[in-house]
Amino acid sequence: QQQVKQSPQSLIVQKGGISIINCAYENTAFDYFPWYQQFPGKGPALLIAIRPDVSEKKEGRFTISFNKSAKQFSLHIMDSQPGDSATYFCAASIGSSNTGKLIFGQGTTLQVKP
Amino acid sequence: DADVTQTPRNRITKTGKRIMLECSQTKGHDRMYWYRQDPGLGLRLIYYSFDVKDINKGEISDGYSVSRQAQAKFSLSLESAIPNQTALYFCATSDFRTGTNEQFFGPGTRLTVL
Question: Which residues of B lie closer than 8 Å to A, measured between beta carbons?
Fold first, then answer.
């Protein structure tokens, strides 16, 4: 049972372009939506996160867009750079339950070509 | 630096063997998690622990067991390894006191079961 569905599985973007990764969730109780970035040979690390009381959050070149009615959220990487090449995971959790459990999407491998 | 470490980093074993993966953290976090990562499936939760006396099954616990020896140590065991347990395994930690669900991952253990 996959509660968070992520697409595309892989993405190739030219340097300077915009990378867009999409996620959809099913459980309306989810109230915390982080994105993790994973470089080869490393563990995932938190990149940016959003709560459903806002529709957008921006940190540098990274933006999360959130659509509560559609139960979808997406990561936009502006001015993509070769150093952004990594695997990206969206996730969701019920923060108010304090379980700390994250449900991850399937992951997207991003390659930014010079 | 406070960190999450995993040993071994790579392991090749044979079907039927017992194997233990170890995780240690110096972050002082109370919560610890074990995930496995498979291509196209993302990160799936195996077990999680909120303190030494609290162990919980995740979504794919069959064939695995865990031990929380101390707040800083959380081990994952495969009692009788099988080939479909070949995967990348990650340990993660989080701190209940922060009020967020941010998890900090170790570098991973690549396990191959022949």
Answer: 4, 31, 33, 35, 37, 40-45, 48, 50, 58, 90, 92, 94, 96, 99-108
Q: Tokens 């992520």 — which residue?
A: A6
Residues of chain B in contact with residue A95, where contact means CB-CB under 8 angstroms, are 99-101
**Angle at CA of residue A25, ends A22 and A30, nearest 5°:** 120
Cβ contact B103:A56 at 8 Å:
no
Closest partner residue to A100 (CB to CB) among B4, B31, B44 is B31
Query: Which CA distances in Å does B85 have to A44, B13, B14, B107?
Result: 20, 11, 11, 18
Query: Distances in Å between the alpha carbon of B81 and those of B57, B86, B112?
Result: 18, 9, 9
Dump pLDDT digits (tens) for A54-105.
999 999 999 999 999 999 999 999 999 999 999 999 999 876 555 668 999 9
